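Researcher: We plan to redesign the surface later, but first we want a full-length starting point. Tokens attached.
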């Protein structure tokens, strides 16, 4: 699949892979700062952003999508920054194509499988009747009945666009994401990954626990784990300055 991407800056390539229900748009602010030192590629994964939709959705496919993009661009010795689902795509890519990577940053996720935990978000998104909702404000009001957190709602509602005058639609392939959720939360299988890797976790998140450290260091022998004390799962949005500093210290 030919993925949609945008680029900014010059220098060594840094590819950014967004998380579930996200898109490359989520990374524009930090990406511009990274673009002062790197050639930054903002990538939309399949069924997200401006990339094509497909009924097929798993990490093997997302890894091959990304590999096709890197090959088409003629890039190698790349750096990858992946958040959540994007972090798992990066891990899968590093397991299969380690020769193409220099360094990898995995933001608030590990390779392990996770229990189902997106129920409220899915319920909220599926509750929006886009045939009757005529404004983003109205969509936010409806979504607030299911999701209290304003920041989470704004993140999710970035996926809305005007398909035509008066008709909102989702950029994400919501039905397939819901159907394929078991694949999204599944473990990435591999023996070990020798890529120089930085895990950045939020102290207020439960995606990477201290009890996971030994397993991470075993599976990623050349890894470090950095904790952002004031951040939850959206580490780059909740502590952007600290996140930027940690990434730059690692890459430079």
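Model: Full-length starting sequence:
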């Amino acid at each position: 699949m030919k993925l949609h991407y945008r680029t900014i800056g010059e220098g060594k390539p840094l590819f950014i892979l967004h998380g579930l229900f996200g898109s490359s748009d989520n990374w524009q602010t930090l990406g511009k700062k990274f673009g002062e030192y790197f050639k930054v590629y903002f990538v939309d994964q399949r069924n997200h952003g401006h990339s094509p939709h497909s009924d097929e959705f798993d990490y093997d496919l997302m890894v091959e999508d990304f590999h096709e993009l890197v090959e088409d661009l003629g890039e190698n010795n790349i750096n990858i920054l992946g958040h959540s689902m994007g972090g798992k795509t990066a891990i899968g890519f590093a397991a299969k194509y380690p020769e193409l990577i220099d360094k990898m940053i995995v933001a608030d996720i590990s390779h392990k499988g996770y229990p189902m935990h997106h129920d409220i978000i899915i319920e909220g998104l599926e509750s929006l009747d886009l045939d009757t909702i005529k404004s983003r404000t109205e969509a936010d009001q409806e979504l607030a009945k299911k999701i209290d957190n304003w920041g989470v709602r704004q993140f999710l509602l970035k996926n809305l666009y005007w398909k035509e005058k008066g008709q909102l639609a989702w950029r994400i392939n919501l039905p397939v994401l819901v159907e394929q959720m078991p694949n999204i939360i599944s473990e990435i299988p591999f023996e070990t990954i020798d890529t120089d890797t930085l895990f950045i976790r939020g102290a207020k998140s439960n995606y990477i626990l201290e009890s996971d450290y030994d397993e991470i260091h075993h599976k990623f022998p050349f890894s470090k784990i950095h904790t952002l004390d004031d951040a939850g799962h959206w580490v780059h949005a909740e502590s952007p300055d600290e996140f930027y500093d940690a990434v730059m210290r690692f890459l430079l």
